Amino acid sequence: MIEPIEKINTFIYRCDNHFLVSPLEDMLNDKVTYGLVVIGRKRATIGYIRGTQTKILKEFSSDVPSKHTAGGQSQRRFERLIQEGERRFYRRVIKFLNHAFLLIENLSGIFVGGAGNSKKKFVQDKFIDYRLKPIIQDTIDLPYDGGYEGIRALKSKISTQLVGIRYSQEKNLVQKFLKELSKDSGLAIYGFTEVKKALMRSTAKILIISECLENPEEFTSIANKNGIKVEVISNETEEGEMIYKAFGGVVCIDRHF
């Protein structure tokens, strides 16, 4: 048995005279990777995004003390201790970042997010490998200093900059549906019955299905029979979650009348 190089989260039941290999083809094509860093003085998280998959590589915590409120020499000495502790923490994160990111093939860019000035101090550190410095794309203001919630917020803010990533393509696709819905154009179809009607009369242009939907074949079989494009989307984006939770996991965009 040959196993795919990455986990497949999509399940589609389909009766046909050939194998459905498009999820495997997408996996092979989705090699563009972006490094993600969310950092503050107290913690940091390093990961990457490839396709729709986000992986956390390591989380860090620091022992940098909180700011001191005393005055005079005591305050200045304490501030120096804070700065030194902060610098040591960044160097510890950078040491791992250099090792981990240089091993990633097709690393197209790095995005660094966080609250306050930490992210800017981090990217200016001379210990970041000279091969990684040029591909730092942007620093992003976030209300987080690490954790999965920080990585998720960073992905959401940079989605338009993630060129060639399935994650951003899925966000754009769902946003098209939501745009038609907000315009009340009649082209955004939702509800199991209405979607099935649009598929059966072949007016649907794109069928959008959540990977979490049970029994997707009752929709995909009609779409495939009528030559309608099928897009299976993950739950990795807020938009993907919305399709599943608010619309039952299946919608479609109709053709213009």
Radius of gyration of CA atoms, rounded to a whole number: 23 Å
Classify the helix fraction into a percent range: 25-40%
Sheet bearing the most strands, described? 5 strands, mixed
Number of strands: 9
- Strand order in space, largest sheet: 3-2-1-4-5
Put simply, the count of helices is 8
SSE sequence, one letter per element:
HEEEHEHEHHEHEHEHE
Q: What is the level 1 CATH name of the largest domain?
A: Alpha Beta
Beta-strand content: 15-25%
Q: Tags for this entry?
A:
single chain, 257 residues, alpha/beta, Nucleotidyltransferase, domain 5, 60s Ribosomal Protein L30, Chain: A, 5-stranded mixed beta sheet, 8 helices, 40% helix
Task: Offer a concise description of the structure.
Residues 2-28 form the eRF1/Pelota-like N-terminal domain. The chain has 257 residues and is α/β, with parallel strands linked by helices.
What would you note in describing this structure?
- With 257 residues, the chain is an alpha/beta fold.
- The chain has 2 domains: 131 residues, Nucleotidyltransferase, domain 5 (2-Layer Sandwich), CATH 3.30.420; 89 residues, 60s Ribosomal Protein L30, Chain: A, CATH 3.30.1330.
- It contains 8 helices and 9 strands.
- Strand 7, helix 7 and strand 8 form a beta-alpha-beta unit.
- Helix 5 crosses helix 8.
- The longest helix has 31 residues.
- It is elongated, with a radius of gyration of 23 Å.
- The termini are far apart.
- The mean pLDDT is 86.
Which SSEs are present, and which pair or pack?
Blueprint: H1 22-29, E1 33-39, E2 43-50, E3 53-61, H2 72-102, E4 107-114, H3 118-123, E5 136-141, H4 147-157, H5 166-183, E6 188-190, H6 192-200, E7 204-210, H7 217-225, E8 229-233, H8 238-247, E9 250-254
Parallel strand pairs: 1-4, 4-5, 7-8
Antiparallel strand pairs: 1-2, 2-3, 6-9, 7-9
Helix pairs in contact: 5-8
